[in-house]
Amino acid sequence: METEFTPWAALGGGALIGLSAVLLMAFYGRIMGATGILAGLLRFNDPADWALRAALVIGMTAGPLAYLALNGAIPAIDLPVSNLEVVIGGLIVGVGVSYGGGCTSGHGVCGIARGSLRSIVATGVFMTTAIVTVFVTRHLIGG
User: Fold this and answer.
1) Model-level pTM?
2) CB of 112 within 8 A of CB of 124?
3) Segment 51-69, tens digit of pLDDT
4) Of 100, 96, 92, nearest in space to 118 by CA
5) Secondary structure of residue 43 in the 3-state scheme
6) Among 30, 54, 45, 35, which residue's Cα sits nearest to residue 110?
7) In the chain, what are the domain boundaries?
8) Which has the closest alpha carbon to 105: 9, 7, 20?
9) Among 19, 22, 54, 105, which is least packed by CB within 10 angstroms?
């Protein structure tokens, strides 16, 4: 499988993620950890907090709809694995997020920026695991 490298799109996306994390911290004092925000939607004890979380999740998922409005078609998503494998991978990531106390956005974007040693270690583990997984999948298993 060949990977399409898109440096300008990656740079733009990374800049927008960083900007959104800074703005959320500046205006609401909150960490932009996607899984923590999503998990908070299951708690209804603070209506203002729930509304903020819902707005963030809606904003994160609105990209394909904006693409549709601009281009007249939903963007093509080509996955080299089956839907079942995506679900299994998502469950594995969910367990890892629970044990790791956060996800790549919370630790990798916000935690490292705050100088959190825990986040630096967690991000190192995330990245090492991703590198090993890609190597095994592409070179040892042959995917």
Assistant:
1) 0.70
2) no
3) 998 998 898 888 888 889 9
4) 100
5) coil
6) 30
7) 7-141
8) 20
9) 19
Taking CA 83 as the corner, what is the angle to CA 134 and CA 98, rounded to the nearest 5 degrees?
65
pLDDT over 60 at 143, yes or no: no
104 SS3 class: helix
Instruction: Please tell me the predicted confidence (pLDDT) of residue 70.
Output: 93
Mean pLDDT of the chain: 86
Q: Which residue has the tokens 């490292």?
A: 112
What amino acid is encoded at 111 in this protein? Answer: G
Residues 132 and 138: their CA atoms lie apart, in Å, by: 10
75 CB neighbour count, 10 Å cutoff: 9
Residue type at 71 in one-letter notation: N
CA-to-CA distance for 104 and 33, rounded, in angstroms?
A: 8
R_g of the chain, CA atoms, integer Å: 17
